[in-house]
Amino acid sequence: MIIRTSATTKRWIDIVLLSIAGAAGATFLLHSFPAHPELSHLSKWAFPPGAILLTILLSTSNKGRLSAWSGFRHFPSHPPTWLAALLGFALLSTYITLIPPEAAPVSCKGIDFPLLREMASQGKFGILLALTAGAFTTLIGRKASIYWATRTTHRAQSEPQVLNTGNPPRDTTDRTTTQALPPNAIAFDYNDLLPWIENDQPISHPRLDAFGHARIAKRITERLFSPSAKRPTLALIGTLGSGKTSVFNLVTHELHALRLLDTKISVARLSLWPFDTVEAAIRAILEKINKTLSQHINTTPMSGLSDEYINAIEAAGGSWGRLLKGTRDPSAILEDYNQAASAINLTIVVWIEDLERFAGTSTLNDETETDRLKPIRSLLHLLSEFQSLQIVLASSSLNTRFDIEKIARYVEAIPSIPPSKTANILNRFRQKCQSSAQNIIDPARPEARAHLNLPDSESERDLRFSLFSTDNLMFALATLCNNPRRLKFTLRSCHDIWERLRGEIDFDDVLAISAIRTAEPKIFSLINDHIDELRSQRQRDSNNKSLFAQKLEKILEERELHKRSSIITILNFTFPNWSSNNNFIDSSDKPQGLSRRDHRDYWNRYLSLAPLSADEQDQPILRAIKAWDNHTSDDLISILTHTNSRHTVEEFISCLISPNQLTRLLSEVIRLESKLPATTWTASQPESMVSVWRAMHKQAPPGDELTATIRQLVIQIAPSNLPLTHALIHFFAQHDSGVPSLLSDTAISEINQQFHSILSTKFPPTNAQALTQAINGGNEHTLFLCSWGLDRVRSGQLQGTPFDGWHTFSNTILTATETEPEILIPQILPFITTHSREMVREANTPRWRGVIRFNQEAAESLFDIKRLYKIITQHQSSIRADHESRPALEIVLEAAHLHIGPK
């Protein structure tokens, strides 16, 4: 109060002295220089309208910028500069009218002195003074009514008591514009969480506070009323996105609720981010203070203080230099702001943000940069010394070159969101997104989904215990999403992608990679650059780190240990093959995961968000699988046998269909394929059967059940479709050194014996036509592979006869050849020819050449050789062998002609 009275008294003294100086100067000018004669005529009508206009302005200009500019807002405590001119004019007029004419106070012939005296004698000056007095009375009356209303609201409470009682005045804010959030509302109610995700605006009301920012704002507000002569500097520290802007909004809300904002306290908020130089930053701070003051008083006389301050701190030569340049001390310049604010009983809170973006967060060892910032540190220190100016510094770290910890008396740190709370929010969001997707089928295995499941117990202790277990994915996500902005952007990114690709991509992978994308954009960019390496299925060498791993290691060196392990955990979950030491999960457990590219490129799907065509969509396939599993539709069989989506189906059925049901699927696929010729295959075997076979290798059905199914299928299809039977035996009842067998050796032997028995019993010579039909479009090796078996062909064990009862079957082959030589002769050629490679020289250049020879021994052992020669020579004109079989046919024809002789 003493400081305010002193400042007000000083202001009135300045105004009076300025008015006297102005009147004296005007007297000198009027005495020295004649004015225009029209001045006397102008004065006759200018005074009354001017007085009326002045009265109107006085009665209406007590609000907003106009009242501050005119000086009426705080007229008693900080009279405007123009009052000095008015007082000077009054002094000059009094002087002119009261001095006798013969004294000739002025020599200005343009002023009619008799007229002035006549106006004074008639009371016209009294009318002007009465109008002015009425205007001042109106102004003072309106100010008094506002003051009395404020006193009524806050009676019996001083300003500090209002803050400390815990019972703030009634809040008149319109409650229809915001909806109250109970504690942890966004963690337990998706309807509250979704609007929060979609809104970028910082909160501005305590009812919307979900992370405890209101408590921090309350403490800061209380400290804005320090009773000490020097206002304590405050520091608000929080990472980018932690809610510093929300705290600012909540502080202004508290001040507004207490009816103190812009009455007792004004906040000058400024970000240093846009400024490149120290001079620009200093000028911006001072001009912001000046602009804030201009909302209360006319600051036109103070508009040059920022330039004066810059000149003062740049003045060389110490005090002598400043004296020669005519500049004041920097502290004296800033005192003008303090005096003006003190006179009107106003505290200006200078809220400065983004210090770290202006100065950087490097250590203080950079002496050059530290010296560069000395003027700003000095300015902040000087401002903090004044009673009516208070500094609040908002930064992401104390470790800046501004020495915040030395300037600030109080430090408010915005804490990270507790992992348990973040986990609850993530869990609620995940559950709602997945449950709201009606008719959406998730192909991932339950064990893959378990990594993000929280315990069923609602105990906080159980939740914390589960979160802090080793390699907990939910804890890893909570660690990265540890402030409101990161959490919000992660959820928003995941929500937007899920809305576009609902059911067409793995949700958990999208959530995990969204956290990386938001919290660690550098790592996300690295992932995108090396995405093919991360998705590779090749075996990793534990001794040699990949290029991605080397670059990642350099980035992680700058991260805290807990954040480093969290990033590794998320990578292990999202890209299981990126490291040789990763036993976290198998990529096949998530068929729609971002690590998959064999059947769909889900990473590209995630980045592009392009609309999917019908052939690219997964849900129709997944619905067909579920419908088949429930015995309600056979569309799955058609998809497997007639579309190009077999590989995708293969990945999905291995996760959605139980091993027992895979044998049923195999039976239905084989039965449908048995009705189709082998010419419809895109390869040497039906792709639909191969897809089921691959799925069985991912989750093998019971061996006895599969053996029984294979035996039954062989019995059913062998008499009518030998290529399909061979393909079935090839994949399920043959040995392969690179792939483990699904059946036991005993079962394999029994199935092959059964098949050979069918060949000798179901195809007698009397039913040779059935053999021709059973070939069913197979290639020229069909009978050869069916007879010898792939195992013996690979091992070269082709001595003797293929199986017991062979001669009966060979007789059937020859009989069928006599009626259908075009089909059967190419089938006989592999039995009686050999293929080898020999080194030959052509133009003195060695090269390998395929050599085909007639196997006389095999022909005599396997067939009736005379009958065979006869059939071949008789039907040679009707044989239309392809380019691969033609060389072997010519060799056999040559041997037949040599034996029989030319026809």
UniProtKB/TrEMBL annotation:
One Pfam family linked to the record: KAP_NTPase
Region Disordered, annotated ranges: 157-178
Gene3D superfamilies: P-loop containing nucleotide triphosphate hydrolases (3.40.50.300)
Keywords: Membrane, Transmembrane, Transmembrane helix
Transmembrane segments: 12-33, 45-61, 82-99
InterPro entries associated with the record: KAP_P-loop, P-loop_NTPase
Superkingdom of the source species: Bacteria
Boundaries of every KAP NTPase domain copy: 215-357
Biased composition (Polar residues): 158-167
Protein name stated in the entry: KAP NTPase domain-containing protein
Highest classification ranks of the organism: Bacteria, Pseudomonadati, Myxococcota, Myxococcia, Myxococcales
